[in-house]
Automatic annotation (TrEMBL):
This is Putative esterase. InterPro entries: AB_hydrolase_fold, Esterase-like, Mycobacterial_A85_antigen. It holds the Pfam family Esterase. SUPFAM superfamilies: alpha/beta-Hydrolases. It comes from the Bacteria.
Amino acid sequence: MERAYHKWFSPALDRFMEMLVFGHAGMPVIFFPTRSAHFYDFENWRVIDAMKHKIEAGEIQVYCVDSIDSESFYSEAPPPHRIARHIRYEKYILEEVIPFIRIQNKSRELVAAGCSLGGYHAVNIALKHPEMFTKVVGMSARYDLTQPLPYFADLFDGYFDEDIYFNMPNHFVPGISDPELLKRLRELEITLVIGREDSFLENNRHLSDSLHRIDVPHQFYIWEEEAHRPRYWREMVKIYL
């Protein structure tokens, strides 16, 4: 299995960013790490090994991007700064990572995927920019970071503004009415996966219901138990990626 390390200075983030790429060809997958995790964690957790057969066969090429969650959602900065930093991260993905992938990989497809907070990142960016992606997979994710849950706080301390609204799928999806955006979303392959005992189950049901209400097809799978650990993600990626 080919493995390549990349690092460059990001103009969007004004800092160096790192990435691991696994594979030589196939459908490119931007794989977002879990909360405050890093680009190497999926390799360390053997999630990449779980996809080894597909990667070596040239079916998929996995781009493990780094996280800046400790500078955005989990920073001690004021809430407007937290969401502003997240928006810069999205700019990095759209204007730096995706063009890099397009040079490396000639496939017309592009997948966004992630686990836990990485699933939020994947689903949020794909639902806002469906013209950039052909598929999105969110595993064990939370789609409203403003909603306090047992063991999980409101990441904006009660603050709410337009930028937060347009970066929380459970807020902006019900209000989508633009015909072109709806057309693009209906062409996007959307998969949501969550554990029956996961604190985020109702969060996922809310997003699934919202997608149904705007007639956007998607797949919604509920696994037994909490299913919010690398040993479950190793199985999920075999099925959904």
